[in-house]
Amino acid sequence: MPDIATIAASLEGKLKKPRADYLEVRLEESQTSHITYRGRNLESIGRSSATGGCARALAKGGWGFTSFNSFNRLYGRLVLAAGQARSAGTGKSALAAVEPVVDNVPSGVTKNPVTIPLAEKKRLLEEYNDIIWSVPGIRTANIGYSDSRKKVIFLSSEGSRITQERADVALRLTAIAAKDSEVQQVGLSLGSRGNFEAIRDLDKQVTGMARHAVELLSAPQVKGGEYTVVLDPVLAGVFVHEAFGHLSESDFVYENDRMREIMVLGKQFGAGHLNIVDSAAEPGLRGSYKYDDEGVRAVKTYLIREGKLVGRLHSRETAAKMSENTTGNARAISYHFPPIVRMTNTYIEPGKLSFDDIIADIKEGLYVKNWYGGVTSMEMFTFSAGEAYMIRHGKIAEAVRPVVLTGNVFTTLKNIDAVGNDLDMNQGGGCGKGGQMPLPVSNGSPHIRIRHCLVGGK
Length: 458
Hints:
This protein is of the alpha+beta class. It folds into 2 domains: 4-218, PmbA/TldD superfamily (PmbA/TldD fold, 2-Layer Sandwich); 225-456, no CATH class. It is built from 10 helices and 24 strands. Strands 1, 2, 3, 4, 5, 6 and 7 form a 7-stranded mixed β-sheet that branches. Helix 3 runs parallel beside helix 4 (203-215). The longest helix has 16 residues, at 118-133.
């Protein structure tokens, strides 16, 4: 089979021939490996590769899409997508204008993580698993590792030809402790833009994770109610991604009458110290790239600036429909899917306060860290913190059982009354939407303080 660069060259000049207002092709080569442990046992290990592509056409406002693993009769795939689009279309096509681009973007990593022997990866994860199980009181453990290397060539009927390569590494460890009828768990998520070294030398962190899970079995439970709560960068980053970031994806806003009424640009959502950003233009993060899957250049997009809603995330189509600027947020997890509006690296910008400043005047409150679950529904959210500690008279006090935070995201944004100076980005995990998951993203924040936060407890 010829490589995708040769196939792409054979298509140039043909994308304008099928009858469509716009047509694009993505060709992809990828390699992945994975290792999974359940309890003490290795559950799954393997390596795979895939080559394929997709064609997407727009005609009279309707889209056609087809994906394929064979490159035989490739021009027929373009004709098929264009025909589907003409059948679906009943109006006028609208895409925000972008300049055609010809570019080649390397992955930026010196070693493809997939080529590291599976035996070496297995030895490292076995070490971490042995550490977890060496802690008395551990009942079980879960470990999931994955890596990938991908090369994608994007072609459009407007004249773009973009080759991008990227690599990714992700690791999730969970230690679960149990005694009698009590069960507690603590997790650790890490990742990188293809650098395998980012998951080495974690012995101390893994030990601390397992010990803390056991300690939580005897920790007291908080009385439920309203508290002043301080979130660490991990949990605050999850909050900004899950509770607010998805509401900023413009396809959701455009299709939802209630959200269009709420998410009005210029509306005050927080105090002047609150700034929320989504940016694939940040270097070296898992959600970073130079161009999205529509060939649009990534930019830094302020969603909230000085407390006001000033932007949202767009594909070319949603930007045209809402008469707003493109942001480069159309992403597809693979050639099996069309691009949809997705977050990249979403975070709260740092303020000026130290952690000691943030907790100094709290007589009784909670410091919550990490997370292991959550649910959002429109503007309502519920998150489970991974760790929790009492704050008493401006000092961190005893550990307590992990708590559940719940509330309305817009009320909560207004109640953020302090933002720290210690921004940290969480590289673990991935985002799901429209059946496409886990998409590499990162999220982060400095420490933040929230007044009147509803906490579940006894």
